[in-house]
User: What shape does this take?
Amino acid sequence: MTQTQTGLPLVSAGELRERIGPRRAFELIERALLDGFDPSEDPARVHAGAGDGHLLLMPSTLGDWVGVKVASVSPDNPARDLPRIQAVYMLMDARTLTPRLLVDGVALTSLRTPATSAVAVDRLAAADASRLVVFGSGPQAVEHVVAVAQVRTLTSVRMVGRTAHRVDAALRELAERGIAAEAGVGSDVPQADIVVCATSAKDPLFDGSLVRDGACVVAMGSHEADRRELDAALMGRSFVVVEESGAALRECGDVVLAIEEGTLTEADLVGLAPLVRGEVARRTDRPNVFKGSGMSWEDLAVAVGVAPTL
Assistant: This one.
């Protein structure tokens, strides 16, 4: 852990991954919900125009800790050989609001998003689910494979992507991390026990009628109300779990557009917290969908894992 010029300790991406791996991130997300945290109490994500892009501000409070992630989105950065999204996380103690720690925000996101999905998968997928199909080939797609492998024994992993060389790169990274995978196609969906969508798609990735009853589908590729990875028909015939209904109605196009098209209602949405606490359970007579957009409490729950002693 290094010191910044402000004197605050800085947890780098590498150190965060060493100290909190996928399994520990899963446990931290799960524990926050089992301990009674209500995601509806989480402040909404704030979008603010800034310079040539915009900022995302994500504050939260969990017990003794307060935190905020500041993420910048600059669409022109790839042409400058800079990341499109950059982020930093500040952790504070709740009693005095004194800054205690800075954490690499991009690395934090890469841990908490798949960990949250894995918490849902652990409840929504059959106990013997072993065949995974992933749409996407970027970092989140890879991390979701790793996270799902923590909660289910996978015998088949197939990656579906638009660009062959990116899929090949994802397969190599998974192999280096001890997970065998191969390139897949959309027609693999009917055989899948678990389907993960981790893309930037604006329109549905596949025909939702291909998903079997009892299968588990995760969609986490966007937090915009006009973008979706799953079609309205699939949403309408599924048991639909969201992080929290208010956030889903603000940010989840898969939910918002299905409601607009009349296949889904707000009353159909089930929160992740009651699922984790055993108040509701997966269905075998229909698909089980988890739609996540990312919430502030998830960053904080994982960041607390590297928190200093108060």
